[in-house]
Specification:
Strands 1, 2, 3, 4, 5, 6, 7, 8, 9, 10 and 11 form an eleven-stranded parallel β-sheet that branches. A two-stranded parallel ribbon has the order 12-13. Helices cover 6% and strands 32% of the residues. It is mainly β. The termini are far apart. The chain is built from one helix and 13 strands. The chain is elongated and about 70 Å long. It has one helix at 194-205, and strands at residues 12-14, 26-28, 30-38, 46-48, 51-58, 66-73, 86-93, 106-113, 126-133, 146-147, 150-153, 160-161, 180-181. The protein has one domain: 3 Solenoid (Pectate Lyase C-like), CATH 2.160.20.80. The relative contact order is 0.09.
Length: 212
């Protein structure tokens, strides 16, 4: 998977408010750092070739959020509305997205590493390529989502809802969960470890594993 490639030495230091100076609401080749943006309502903000560090977006509505070749590091998007986002070659590192709404979004070459994503909403999304590494998605939802390629590595997925989402070839065998909320008919092709298989079999088919 391609990750953002930034020439960080040549990024210009900027503030998020500078986006208002561009009629396209575009931040390009800039480094944003240590800001708090509260209760902002903005449609179609665009980040291109940016590094965003230690920025908190508190209860913001950023509809049609768009980012390309951008890294978000130690940022907080909790309880933000990011509906219809478009993300291409974007990395979220050690970010907080608790209760963040990303419904109806498009992901291509997007990674989430050591992110806290409880209650995140990823419903009706199109995921071409995405990777979740050592992240927590407890009580999150990914319902009615079209997935081409997605990777989960050592994630906490308890009560992740995957209703009406095809799970074929998705590997959660090294992740942790007590249950997944899925349509039993969609379990075909999901890759799990023996313990998880027993849990899912008991939960959805009433089967119990007997070990002699």
């Amino acid at each position: 998977m391609s990750l953002p490639k930034l020439d960080q030495e040549h990024l210009v230091k900027a503030r998020f408010g500078d986006i208002n100076n561009n009629e396209d609401q575009l931040l390009q080749a800039v480094h944003l750092q240590s800001e708090t943006i509260t209760n902002l309502d903005l449609t179609h903000p665009i980040f291109e070739n940016c590094l965003v560090e230690h920025v908190t977006f508190s209860d913001c509505d950023l509809n049609k959020f768009e980012a390309t070749n951008t890294i978000f590091k130690n940022c907080d998007f909790s309880n933000c509305q990011l509906d219809q986002a478009s993300l291409y070659e974007v990395a979220f590192e050690n970010c907080k997205l608790v209760g963040t709404v990303l419904d109806n979004s498009y992901f291509n070459e997007v990674s989430f590493t050591t992110c806290l994503m409880d209650l995140v909403a990823l419903n009706k999304c199109q995921i071409k390529t995405a990777q979740f590494v050592e992240s927590r998605l407890v009580d999150a939802s990914m319902n009615d989502t079209k997935i081409k390629k997605i990777t989960f590595e050592h994630c906490q997925l308890n009560r992740l809802s995957l209703m009406f989402t095809k799970l074929k070839d998705i590997d959660v065998s090294n992740c942790q969960f007590q249950r997944l909320d899925v349509d039993g008919s969609q379990l075909r092709g999901l890759i799990v470890n023996p313990e998880q298989a027993a849990q899912l079999a008991q939960l959805y088919f009433g089967l119990r594993l007997k070990i002699n």
